[in-house]
Design goal:
Blueprint: E1 7-13, H1 17-28, E2 34-38, E3 53-54, H2 61-81, E4 92-96, H3 99-115, E5 120-122, H4 124-130, E6 141-145, E7 149-150, H5 153-166, E8 170-173, E9 177-183, E10 190-196, E11 199-208, H6 214-219, E12 231-240, E13 252-255, E14 260-265, E15 268-273, E16 279-280, H7 300-313, E17 322-332, E18 339-342, E19 349-353, H8 359-376, H9 398-410, H10 434-439, E20 442-447, E21 450-456, H11 471-483, E22 486-489, E23 494-499, H12 503-510, E24 522-528, E25 534-544, E26 547-552, H13 557-567, E27 573-576, E28 581-587, H14 591-594, E29 607-609, E30 619-624, H15 628-635, H16 642-651, H17 667-670, H18 685-688, E31 695-701, E32 713-716, E33 719-730, E34 735-742, H19 749-753, E35 757-761, E36 764-771
Parallel strand pairs: 1-2, 1-11, 2-8, 4-13, 11-19
Antiparallel strand pairs: 3-7, 4-6, 5-6, 9-10, 10-11, 12-15, 12-16, 12-17, 13-14, 14-15, 18-19, 20-21, 22-28, 23-26, 23-27, 24-25, 25-26, 28-30, 29-30, 31-34, 31-36, 32-33, 32-35, 33-34, 35-36
Helix pairs in contact: 1-5, 1-8, 2-5, 2-8, 11-16
C-alpha cells in the first residue's frame, strides 16, 4: 500500500476521467506537487461504464471548444504516454423523423459553420449508406458529423494518469476521503486539506472531482456546506451480440426522436439512450460504500421504452441476443450543464463534477480549463454556463434535485427549443405579486429559481421554430409599452447593498464607469475581469456618501457576490437584498403621468431608479417587499412580460450578460466603450484595450413572416460571417430583430454595405439588414 503524504499543494479527490484530466493538466502547467486520491481504483465510479461518445459540436462556442480539445487530446495521448485511449474518429449521424427535428439539425449544421466544424445535412439514403444496419423509411433526413469519435473511457483515464505521474503527480488508490478541513469564519473560509481513512493531508487547493459523491462531501463541510446541486439517476444501455453491417469504424448514430444512440462494439452494438422520464437513484448521502466497478439491478421494464425505439430503427435487433445489460448511476445537475470552478463559500475549494452523461467528451477540455483556473486564479475562457457559482442554496435541496433529475436526463434528446422552460420542481421563489399575476393570466418562466411572467393571455407556452401562438399577445404588450404604459414584475433582479467607508474606493476599482456621483444618481457600468472581458453588467445607484445600491441580472447573484467579495477592500459590507425588494418596472411614454418625478407618494423605503432597459423613458421602483402588492394595485396598469422585455430591448440594441456580454467580450467589441471612465484606473482596464476580434451589431430581417430565436448563422456573400446572439419579433419594426457579432474588425457602415447579408433560418438563407445602430431609439 502506497504511503500517504501529509501535505500536497493540490489534492484532487476522485480518480475518474475528470480528476485524472485535472491532474494531467496541472502538471502540464508546471504544478508537480499534486496528489490525487481515489477511494477505489481509477475509473471505478461512473467512468468505467460510460458509453465513450465524443461529439465535438455543441450548442455554444465555448462548449464546442472544450470538447474539440478533448477529441484532439484523446487522439494524441498515446504517443505521449504509450497507453492507448481507444480513440477512433468514426464520425456521427443524427437522424430526423420529424420536420421540427430536421430544422434543429439544420441549425446545428449552421453552428458547425460558425464554429469551424464540418456538419452536413444528408438524405435518409445517404445516411443508410453510412450506417447500413438501420432502416430509414420513416426518416426525413440526417446530419453527418465527420468530427465525432468514440473512446474507451477507462483507457483514457489510465493514460491521463500516467501522463500526470510522468510529470510528478502522485496518485494513491484505496484512500477514502471522509471530509474537508477549513479555516476562518463563514465569510472568509479557506480549505486547508482533507481528512481520509488513512490520515489527514494538508493542502492549499482541494479539487472535488468525485462525481456523484461530490455533493455529500460538500454538504458535510463543518461550519456550512457548499452548493453542489447533484442527484444521480439510473442510466441504461445494453451490448448486443453481432449485428450484420457493423464494423469498428461504423459511425455513432443518434435517433433522438426515439431517445436512443448506437455505437459498434466487438461486432455488436451498444444500444442506449435518454428516456423521457428518468429513474432517480438514492439520495446523495445514501450512496453505498464501497461502490467500485458496480452496477445496479437490471430493469427491463424501464428500458423497454428505449428498446422499442431501437427495434424500430434497427429491425435486426429483433433476432439479436444481448451480451450485457448495463445500469450504472450517473449524476445530473438542475440545468443539464456541468459544475466547474472555485466555490464561493470556501476559497481554494474547486469542483469538477455533474457532467450529465457528457463527462467523457468534456473531460479533456474541462480538466484543462479547471487547471488553468487553479493556476491563474480566475477562468481563462468563458465558463459562465458551467460555473458552479450559478446556483444558490435553494437549488441544493435534495427533494428539488430528485424531482428535477427525472426531467433533466429526459431532456438530453428532446428538441432544444430556445425558449424551453423546465417544468419540474416549481415554484421555488415567487414575488409578492405572483398571485395577482396568475389571476391576470400570466404564463411563467423561471430564472435562478424566480417565477417570472413571460406573457399574459395565452393558455400555454407552445414551442415552435415558426410563429408561436403566444406571439400576438406579446405584440400587443409591446405596442402598449411603445404607445402608452405597462408594468413589469422585475423582482427577480439581483440586488446588493454595498456600504462602508471604503465602499466608494472599492467600487471605483471594480466598476469600469465612474460611480463617484451625486446621491440619487444611477450609473450604468461594466465589471471587467483581469482579461478585460465582462464579469457583470450592472447599474450602481448612490444612496449616500458610503452607501451604494447595485442591480444586476437575475441569473448571476452568486457570481456577482463572489466578484465583490474578491475585489472589495476589507471593511466593506456587501448584503444580498434580492429578497427584500420587489421591483415594478413602469415603462412607456405615459410613465410620468403614472409615476411623477416627485415620488413622495411611494411607500417608505422605495428606491426609484429612472432607467429603462426597454424604452427611452421609464422608472424602476424597488419597493419593500411587504408594500409591493398595495402599490401594484394602486398603479392599476396593464401588465406585460419578459418576452416583451426581450423584444423591446433588442429593438433598442440593449445588450444582455450571457448573450451579448461575457468574459471573452470587451466593451470595445460590444460597442459600449462609452460606459468606461477615461479618468481613472479600474480592474481590467489595460486588458480591455486589446485588439478586438469581433464587432457587435443590430439586424432586421427583411421578411416579416420569418422568426429568429438567437444562435442563427450570419452569412456574408454566402460565407460564414458571424452569429445572432439574441432575437425576437419586434412590433415597432414589424419584423424579427436581433443582436449579434461579426467575427471581424473593424466593421463600418461601408463594409456592411459592401456585402450581401443573409441569416441561416433552418437551412434557408433569408435577407437581413445589418447596422451598427439600433433600429429603434
Amino acid at each position: 500500500m502506497a504511503d500517504l503524504p501529509s501535505r500536497a499543494r493540490v489534492v484532487i479527490v476522485g480518480g475518474g476521467i475528470v480528476g485524472c484530466s485535472v491532474a494531467y493538466h496541472l502538471t502540464r502547467l508546471g504544478r508537480d506537487d499534486v496528489l490525487l486520491l481515489e477511494q477505489g481504483r481509477l475509473s471505478s465510479g461512473t467512468t468505467w461504464h460510460a458509453a465513450g461518445l465524443v461529439g465535438p459540436l455543441r450548442a455554444s462556442e465555448s462548449g464546442t471548444a472544450l470538447v474539440r480539445y478533448s477529441a484532439e487530446l484523446y487522439a494524441s495521448l498515446e504517443e505521449e504516454t504509450g497507453l492507448a485511449t481507444g480513440y477512433r474518429n468514426v464520425g456521427g449521424l443524427v437522424v430526423a423523423r420529424t420536420p421540427d427535428r430536421l430544422v434543429q439539425l439544420a441549425r446545428t449544421a449552421a453552428n458547425g459553420a460558425a464554429y469551424g466544424l464540418e456538419a452536413e445535412l444528408i438524405t435518409p439514403r445517404q445516411a443508410q449508406e453510412l450506417w447500413p444496419p438501420m432502416q430509414v423509411d420513416d426518416l426525413l433526413g440526417a446530419l453527418w458529423l465527420p468530427g465525432d469519435g468514440k473512446v474507451n473511457p477507462a483507457d483514457v483515464t489510465q493514460s491521463l494518469a500516467k501522463g500526470a505521474r510522468q510529470r510528478g503527480a502522485r496518485i494513491v488508490e484505496k484512500v477514502r476521503v471522509l471530509g474537508l478541513a477549513t479555516t476562518g469564519e463563514r465569510s472568509t473560509r479557506r480549505v486547508t486539506g482533507v481528512r481520509t481513512d488513512r490520515g489527514d493531508v494538508e493542502a492549499e487547493v482541494v479539487v472535488l472531482c468525485a462525481g456523484q459523491w461530490t455533493k455529500a462531501l460538500g454538504d458535510g463541510i463543518e461550519g456550512g456546506g457548499i452548493t453542489v446541486p447533484l442527484h444521480s439517476a439510473e442510466h441504461f444501455y445494453v451490448v448486443t451480440e453481432a449485428v450484420g453491417g457493423t464494423h469498428p469504424d461504423l459511425p455513432i448514430m443518434r435517433d433522438q426522436d426515439g431517445w436512443t444512440y448506437f455505437k459498434e462494439e466487438v461486432g455488436g452494438l451498444v444500444v442506449g439512450g435518454f428516456e423521457p422520464a428518468a429513474k432517480p437513484w438514492v439520495a446523495p448521502d445514501q450512496i453505498p460504500y464501497p461502490f467500485e466497478f458496480q452496477l445496479l439491478d437490471e430493469d427491463w421494464e424501464h428500458f423497454s421504452v428505449l428498446m422499442e425505439q431501437a427495434l424500430l430503427r434497427i429491425p435486426a435487433l429483433e433476432h439479436t441476443g444481448i451480451r450485457k445489460f448495463y445500469n450504472g448511476p450517473e449524476s445530473f445537475t438542475p440545468d443539464n450543464q456541468f459544475l466547474l470552478g472555485e466555490t464561493p463559500q470556501v476559497a481554494g475549494l474547486f469542483v469538477g463534477c455533474g457532467f450529465n452523461s457528457v463527462g467523457i467528451a468534456s473531460a479533456g477540455g474541462a480538466g484543462k480549463a479547471l487547471a488553468e483556473w487553479i493556476v491563474a486564479g480566475s477562468p481563462q475562457e468563458d465558463l459562465v454556463a458551467v460555473d458552479v457559482r450559478r446556483f444558490g442554496p435553494w437549488q441544493n435541496d435534495v427533494p428539488f434535485l430528485r424531482e428535477r433529475v427525472v426531467e433533466t436526463l429526459g431532456l438530453h434528446y428532446e428538441i432544444p427549443w430556445p425558449n424551453r422552460e423546465f417544468e419540474s420542481a416549481r415554484p421555488q421563489r415567487t414575488s409578492p405579486l405572483h398571485g395577482r399575476l396568475v389571476g391576470q393570466g400570466a404564463l411563467f418562466g423561471a430564472r435562478n429559481g424566480w417565477e417570472r411572467p413571460l406573457v399574459f393571455g395565452p393558455t400555454s407556452l407552445d414551442y415552435s421554430w415558426d410563429r408561436p401562438s403566444w406571439l400576438d399577445a406579446c405584440i400587443a404588450e409591446q405596442r402598449e409599452v411603445r404607445t402608452n404604459v405597462a408594468v413589469f414584475d422585475e423582482t427577480s433582479f439581483s440586488k446588493y447593498l454595498v456600504t462602508g467607508p471604503a465602499a466608494l474606493a472599492g467600487l471605483e476599482w471594480i466598476c469600469g464607469n465612474d460611480v463617484d456621483v451625486a446621491v440619487g444618481e444611477t450609473v450604468y457600468t461594466p465589471w471587467l475581469g483581469e482579461r478585460g472581458g465582462y464579469e457583470a453588467d450592472v447599474t450602481v445607484t448612490r444612496l449616500g456618501a458610503d452607501r451604494f445600491f447595485v442591480v444586476s441580472s437575475a441569473a448571476t447573484t452568486y457570481r456577482d457576490l463572489d466578484h465583490l467579495h474578491r475585489h472589495l477592500p476589507a471593511g466593506v459590507e456587501v448584503r444580498d437584498v434580492s429578497d427584500d425588494y420587489a421591483v415594478l418596472g413602469v415603462f412607456g411614454p405615459r410613465t410620468e403621468a403614472v409615476v411623477p418625478r416627485d415620488t413622495g407618494g411611494l411607500p417608505e423605503g422605495t428606491i426609484p431608479i429612472r432607467s429603462s432597459y426597454v424604452d427611452l423613458t421609464g422608472v424602476e421602483l424597488f419597493v419593500p417587499r411587504d408594500e409591493a402588492a398595495a402599490l401594484y394595485d394602486r398603479l392599476a396598469i396593464d401588465p406585460a412580460g419578459y418576452y416583451t422585455i426581450d423584444a423591446l430591448r433588442i429593438e433598442l440594441g440593449r445588450r444582455a450578460f450571457g448573450r451579448e456580454l461575457g468574459p471573452d467580450v470587451t466593451p470595445r467589441e460590444a460597442g459600449l466603450s462609452f460606459a468606461l471612465s477615461k479618468g481613472k484606473d479600474f480592474l481590467g482596464r489595460a486588458a480591455a484595450q486589446r485588439e478586438p476580434v469581433r464587432r457587435y451589431l443590430s439586424l432586421v430581417v427583411g421578411d416579416p413572416d420569418v422568426m429568429l430565436w438567437g444562435g442563427e448563422l450570419l452569412l456574408s456573400d454566402g460565407r460564414p460571417g458571424g452569429q445572432v446572439t439574441s432575437a425576437a419579433w419586434g412590433a415597432t419594426v414589424g419584423a424579427a430583430v436581433g443582436l449579434g457579432y461579426l467575427r471581424s474588425w473593424p466593421v463600418t457602415a461601408e463594409t456592411l454595405a459592401g456585402s450581401v447579408w443573409t441569416v441561416d433560418v433552418g437551412g434557408t438563407p433569408v435577407p437581413v439588414r445589418l447596422s451598427l445602430r439600433a433600429p429603434v431609439g
